[in-house]
Fold each of these.
Amino acid sequence: MEERPDNAKRDGFLPFYTNAFDRVFISAVILIGIHLLWLRFMEPALPIEAATVISLAIGFVVVRRG
Amino acid sequence: MRNPRTGWLLLSPTLIVLIIFGFLPFLYVLFVGFNEWNIFAAEDGMRFNGLDNFRRLVFDDDFLNSVGLTAKFAVFAIASEVVLGFLLAQMLTRNFPGKSLFRIIHTFPLMVAPIAVGAIWRLLVIPGFGPVPFLLDRWFDIEYLIGTYPDQALLTSVIMDVWHWTPFVTLTMLAGLSSIPKEPVEQAKVDGANRFQVFWYVTLPFLRPVLLTTIFIRIMDAIRTVDEVSMLAGGGPGTRFTGIYIWRVVFPRTDYGYGSSISIITLYLTIVLCWLLFIGISGQGKDEVE
C-alpha cells in the first residue's frame, strides 16, 4: 500500500490525490468541456448524444479509477 | 461539543442564506440558459430551446473575442499586481521615515468605489481634456486615443486595475509575510543562502496559501469587471470584456436566455481556471506531495 498524504484521498491515474468529490467535479468539468467542443467542431458530423456517451464513459473511468 | 447535530445547527443560518441567495439564483440562471426568453420577442415568456443558446455561444465571435480579451486583461493586471504588491509588502516590513503616512495613502484607492475609479481615470484620459493625452502628445509625440486604439484602451484598463487593486494585494502579502517565522529564514542565511534562495526556498513556500487566495480573488474580480471599464471606455474597442458583453446581451438587447448561458459558461471557465491554478500552485501534485 503506497503512502498517501490523506487517508480519504485515493492514488489513481490522475496526477494528484483525489477524494470522491474531486473525481465527480473533474468528471463534470470534462462533461461540459467535451459538450462545448463538440458543439463547435463535431456536431455537423456526429450528434451531441455521442458527446454525452463519451463524456459519461470518461466520467465513469475518472470516478472509478482516478 | 463534538455532536454533529450541533455543528449542522450552528451552520444552518449560513447555509440557509447561501441556498436562498446563492444556490437558488444559480439554478434559476441555469434554467433560463436553456430557454429562449426575450421580452421584446414576438412570443411572450420563456420557451425551452435545449442547447441552442450554447450552440450559438460557441460560434459567437464577439463572445469568444471577449473571453480572449478578458484573459489578456486578467493575466497582465494580476501579474503586475502580485509583483508590485509583493515588492510593496516587502518594503512595508522594514522601517523607513513616513511609513505610516505611506501606508495610509497607499490604501486610498481601495476605498474608492469602482464606478468612481472609472470616472477618475476617464477624466484623466479623455482626449482634448485629460492631462494624460496632452502630456503624452507634448513629451513623446504619442497620439493617445483610447476610443480609437484598442491596445491603448486595454493598457489603460490594466493600469487602472493595477492602481485600484495593488493595495489589496499588498495588504494580503503583508499579512502573509508577517506570519512567516523568523527561524527558517535565519537558518537559511546561516547555511549560506543568498537573498534569492531565501525568497525561493523559504519565503515563497510559506506565502503559497496567501498567494493562492489573493490570485483567486483577483481572478474572480478581473473576470467580472464591468463598471470600472465601462465608465472608462464605454465598452469600446479593446475593453469589450466578458462582463460587459453579458451586460449588453442581458440589458440593452434583453436576451435573457442567451445572457444566462454566457454567464454559466463564464462561471465554468472561472471555476476551471481557479481549479487548475489551485492544483498548480498549492502543491497537490503527487510529485510535490511525495
Amino acid sequence: MNNIFILRKDIDPWIKRMAEERTVFAPVHEGDAVVYRACDSGLRVELDTMPTTSPKEIVFPQNETLLTYTRGSGNEDGSVGVETTETLPSGKAVIFGTRPCGARGLLIFDQVYNNERIRDAYYAARRENTLTITIACNRPRPTCFCNSVGGAPDDSKGSDIMLYPLDDGFVAEALTSGGEELLALAPSSPAGEKAVKAKAKAGQAIETMGSPMDLSEVRKKFDLCFTDLAFWEKHSGKCLSCGICTYLCPTCYCFNITDEGSEEKGKRLRSWDNCMSFNFTAEASGHNPRSAKAMRLRNRIGHKFVYYPELHEDRLACCGCGRCITACPSSVDIRNIVKAVQEYSHE
Amino acid sequence: MSNNNQLLPQMATVIEIVNETANIKTFRIRLNDKAAMNSLTFKPGQVGQLSLFGIGESTFVINSSPTRMEYLQFSILKVGEVTQKLHQLKVGDQIGVRAPLGNAFPCEKMKGKDILFIGGGIGMAPLRTLLVYMLDNRDDYGKITLLYGGRSPGDMAFQEDLHEWTSRKDMETVLTIDNPFEGWDFEVGLIPNILLDMAPSPENCVAVTCGPPIMIKFTINALKKLSFPDEAILTTLERRMKCGVGLCGRCNIGEKYVCVDGPVFTWAELKLLPSEL
C-alpha cells in the first residue's frame, strides 16, 4: 500500500479529526508514567517512549460493568423479582501509539476471548470496533525481548496502521481498509524516499537488542521441573505477590467477577485479577491448589510458555515487552526464569 | 444457553427446598422464562453458576437428572459467603443461573457396563445425577452398586433417595459412616477400606467417585489395588471458578480448564496433567 509522510506537528490535527467519530486512546504523561487516555487533541501525546501501561485496557478495561440489577418491590405471590440489565459497551475507538508488542498482545487476547469456541460479548464489542495505530520501535529498551517470542521492533502484525519514525515525522502505512480510512484523515505528503529510509531504520532496531533466547526446550523441561518445588521457590523467593506484572502485562487476561452495591440494587463487575495472589485459587473449604508462591509463579510461567502454546498452535502468551521486568519492585526477571527452565537439568 | 452473552445469568425461582443435613440443603429451581425452561437440556455431570445479586456467584453440579426436567436441582453445602446466603433462601425467591456449563459423564460409552458409584459427603451430589439418569435408563447398564459414606448418620444427605435406593432390587447400596453410632445398622469404616472389603470386580466395570480430595485420593488407590484400569475410573473435580467458560484463569490444571474441559475426568486423563490438585 501507499506510504505517506506525516509531520510531527500534524499528529495533533490528525488525532483531532479521528476523534470526531471515534474515541482515540493515546499515550500521555501522568506523573512518572505514560498511560493511555482518551484524547480529542493530541497536544500532549508521547510518541517516543513506550507507554508504561499496555493497550489491553482499551479493549479489556481494568474493571467493567457486566450487568446492573434491581430487586423489585414484590410479586403478587409474595416473591420478590430481580431485574438484570446487560451493559454492553458501544462506540468506536482507536489505539494510538502502541508498540508492536502491544499489538501482538491483542492478538494473543483474541485467541482466548474471540474464537470459534467462545465470543466474549464485552471484549468483542470493543475489539471489533477498535483500530490499532502502531509506532515501530527504533530504540528498544534493555528489558525488551520481543525478538525472543516471535516479534520484532518493526513487526506490523495486528496493526491497522504502522508509523515508522524519523526525526521530523512518521512514514505511515495502512495495512487494513480501516487503517486506510483513518490515514485519509491525516494531513500528509507522499513519503517518497523517506519510506525506504524510515523502514530500514526500524528494521535495524532489532540489531540493538540482545540475541534471541533459545526457548526450544522450555515445554519439555517445564514438565521435568514441575514437581521440583525448590526450583520454583528459588525463582519466586523475592516475589512480593503484588501483581504489578500481571496488571501491566499486555497478555495477562485473568479476571474476577464481583458484585458492587446492595442486594437491592447494584452492578456486577469484571475486574483484572492477579494469579500471584493467594486468594486467586483459595476455595471456601480452605483448600488451595496453588497455596505457595512458588506454585503460583510456576503457573504464571506455565501459562505463558507451556499451556497457552499447547492450546493455541504453539504461540506464546508473552509479547516480550519487558513491562513486568521494569515494574517489578523486587527485580524478578521473567527472562531469567524461562532461561532456567530451558537449561533445567536434574541435580 | 439461550443468551449468547455467557456471563449473563437467566432468572429462576426457587420452587422447593429440602433440608438434607445440618449444613446441606437441596434447592429445586425453575427458569422464569417458561420457553427457556422447556428447551433447556443438559447432561449428567454438567454444572451451573448460581448467583445471588449483591453477594456473588458460585459453581455447583446440577444434581437432578435430565430424564426429569420439572426442575433443576442443586445440593449445597454451607461453607462460604455465597453458600451461607443461599441457605437463607425461601421458596419463591429469585436466583440467577448460568447453566449448563462444563463437560459430562460419558453416559453413552458407559452403556453395557457395570457401574460402581463411590461418594463421600457432598461428593454424592454429582453422583446422584448420573445414578438417577442410569436408573431411569436401567436396561442400558449392567450391575449398579453404590457405596456412599458420611461422617455420621446425620451427615447422610439424600434420605429420600436412600430410602428408594436401599429398597430397590436392581441395585446394591452400601452405606457407611466413620465411627460406630447407636441405631446405625449399616457399615462402619472409611470408604476406601469398605471398598476393599467389598472387592468389586473390575471386569467390564466403571467406577465413578467424588468426595473430599483426600477421600478421592485414597479411593483411587483402593481402586488401583482392585485392578481397575485408569480409563475406568471417573471423578469430578471442584475448583474455585468465576466465569465458568474458560476465561478467568482460576480453575486450570495445566492447559485444562476444569470449567470447560471438566469437571469430569478419567484417572488416565488426570495422571497426564501437572500434579496440582
